[in-house]
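Reopening this one. Same input as before:
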Amino acid sequence: MTEFERVLVRSFNTFFEKNKVKGVAYRLKQHRFTPQFLDVLVDSLDPDYYMGIECKSISVDKGAKALYFTQHFTTDKNGLHQIERISDFLLKAGRTGFLAVELKMGTGRTREAYMIPWTELCRKYREEGTAKITVEEIQDYPRIERESNEYLIDPEGWKKLRLIE
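Same output, byte for byte:
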């Protein structure tokens, strides 16, 4: 589990506890030869919090200018792209999907994270046929604000992002 995933899970669970919302965020144990569906799963009776989140990090400080669909996403042994596998899982499970992207800005600088609705990611990948999402495009999506060592989970922000396929 990456630090980004760990902090995101902890932030969700802190939010649920503080706001007395029935919900839990977790990460399934990853096995070496078994692909996991998503990095973070969030379960709740409230449909606004029934979601799956894939997490990606890129190092802007080391020259990364985009998140590439071939470099940052995997293809399984059957040739099925990770975006297609996750989309299928989200559809079958009835979860709202998101791509959380963390931009590492370098030593001494605060990391930034942004939330991209999965439907937007699919549109770019399938319909636009683009090979990447640039850092500037990522920064156009809602930022996940930080306070100290936790991300702030904003219920109104999640509702605005919730898009149904």
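So the earlier flakiness isn't reproducible anymore. For the record, The helical segments are 3-18, 82-93, 118-127, 135-138, 155-161.
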